[in-house]
Please model this.
Amino acid sequence: MKVSKKILALALAGFMTVPFFAGCSSDGGDAQDGGNSSNGGNSSADGGEASSAGGTFKIGGIGPLTGDAASYGISVKQGAQVAVDEINAAGGVNGMTLELLFEDDECNEEKSVSAYNKLMDSKVNVILGAVTSGCSIAVSEESVNDGILQITPSGSAMDCTKNSNSFRICFTDPLQGKLMAQYISEQGLSSPAIIYDVASDYSKGIHDAFVEQASALGMTIAADESFTGGDVDFKTQLTKIKSSGADCLFLPIYYTEVGYISEQAATVGVELPYFGCDGWDGVINQLNGNTANIEGAIFLTPFVANSSNPKVTAFVDAYNKAYNSTPDQFAADAYDGVYVIKALLETTGGDVSNEALIDAMTKISVDGATGSMSFTADGEPNKSAMVAVIENGEYVGK
Model:
């Protein structure tokens, strides 16, 4: 069931005028050799030999390259590598060459901490990660003790940036929930049903903020259903929603479950307009391109690959040339994350000490593939967003 494009355009016109602090796929393909943590080198988290005089500046990436969330980690690794290669081809930064070392955490918090320790043994200068919220939070408990700058490209839970050394490129969970409640209300819809992952910090954070904002807007939650990550059968939740009187379905979850739900909703007879958040990116591949059941679905995103923005087209072309696939928002977040690091090094004049890099975060601005951004001392980016609509098997920016 589609939402009128005319209504969508009118609502979006108001929606896009509000700047806000911004969260976090292609088929991913095989993981590429973006870096190898066995390369120890001589640079260190305290600067090592990397300086304005030259040397290697090591970026330590952490994310899932295997497992159910591998699409996210592969995209982040590949997007970061595209930026590293571009910067090095242009002469590096202040005489320094960038190197990406990337470790697989399988979207597991303990393994993410192990990956962090391995990268620290390799004397990385900055952490780009982790990719998912829970892992990013787990790593932040370690990185704050070491004082190293941590930038998560896609960890959107509030606690990802609770420490003074932690920053993010993506949207926060609560803000996504509030904005989508407002957006749905502006479509003239007032009785959303929700299905969320009660075990996911990401999903629960968006859910809670959505419910709070919906109440403030006078909306009624027709059905509030949950599941635990790993579930694949949603017929019970969908059957309840079918009889709830809901006028739309909000899914603040990742693309894997969106795929299952959309297919099962068709068999149960649930025909409602779908709305989601940035975790939806990848659902088209999850459905093998068959988006008939979610045609017209709308989700919040910082990046749509078919945008005419020159920054986007340049990135998409470079990514496609390197990996023969179209980048998603996770790749774009990581790409921008590396250019944030480049801006830091330009601002510090090549000083790679932890203190200098962290201090410079609030002094830079970057015009990236996910928009123009600057950063607050709280670790949050100032940036804008858009919504994407699924049309004829493609993501279309609106």
